[in-house]
Amino acid sequence: MATTERAPGKASPRDRLLDAAARLSYQDGVSVGIEALCREAGVSKRSMYQLFDSKDAMLAASLERRIPWYEAQLTHPDADRATPRERILHVFDRLTRASRDAGYHGCPYLAVMVELKDPAHPASVVARQVKDRLTARFRTEAERGGARDPGLLARQLVLVFDGASARAGAGVERLDDGLVTATVTALLDAAGLT
Fold first, then answer.
1. Distant-in-sequence, close-in-space partners of 156: CB < 8 Å, separation ≥ 6
2. pTM of the prediction?
3. CB–CB of 73/83 below 8 Å?
4. What whole-number distance in Å separates Cα of residue 105 and Cα of residue 125?
């Protein structure tokens, strides 16, 4: 694959397309048109198709590119010393803080899965992997904390995470009243998590 030189500090056409895809699909949904994506990125359609096989591939790549940032946001800042309970509650604290942003539209990965409704779509595959990793993270913490049924607790926590993010993203629920933390704490207590 050929590389192109660019001025320092100037994003490549590929990066601009991925940024535009992430921004517009989160803001307007995955049905955003190719023309709008290319216009937002300042890249021609011809160039887009030289870089990506399809809009679907570009959307999947934009989601993949965002994973490290997304997962870092959910990682406790002192993960080595935090307890499993603290690491789990941190995820929900981050969700609560993110939901306060005026541009918050919920979990971008859940939104893609719901909107596309096609588990084989390249973007759905990426989104599902992210959600599966979140479930695995919760299960690991549940095991470390001595939960009676770590698999069940992990599923319950993902259900709360996705439900809270979807409702906050739709603007029908506020997360800053402590309900999410109280709900998660009740689940952790009921599961016997130390």
1. 187, 191
2. 0.90
3. no
4. 20
Q: Of 9, 112, 135, whose CA–CA distance to 62 is shortest?
A: 112
CA 72/CA 64 separation, integer angstroms: 14
DSSP alpha helices (H): ranges in 29-144?
34-41, 45-51, 55-73, 84-99, 108-116, 122-144
Q: Quote the pLDDT of residue 9.
A: 53
Q: What are phi and psi of 148, to 5 degrees?
A: -65, -40
Nearest to 56 by CA among 80, 88, 85, 31: 31
The three-class DSSP label of residue 145 is coil
Q: Do 90 and 28 touch, CB atoms closer than 8 A?
A: no
Can you give the pLDDT at residue 8?
A: 42
Q: Are 15 and 41 in contact (CB under 8 A)?
A: no
Kindly list the averaged pLDDT for each block of 10 residues, start to end, along the chain of length 194: 43 94 94 94 95 95 96 96 98 96 94 95 97 98 98 98 97 93 98 94
DSSP single-letter state for residue 187: H
CA distances from 88 to 55, 73, 98, 158, 180 (A): 35, 12, 16, 11, 12
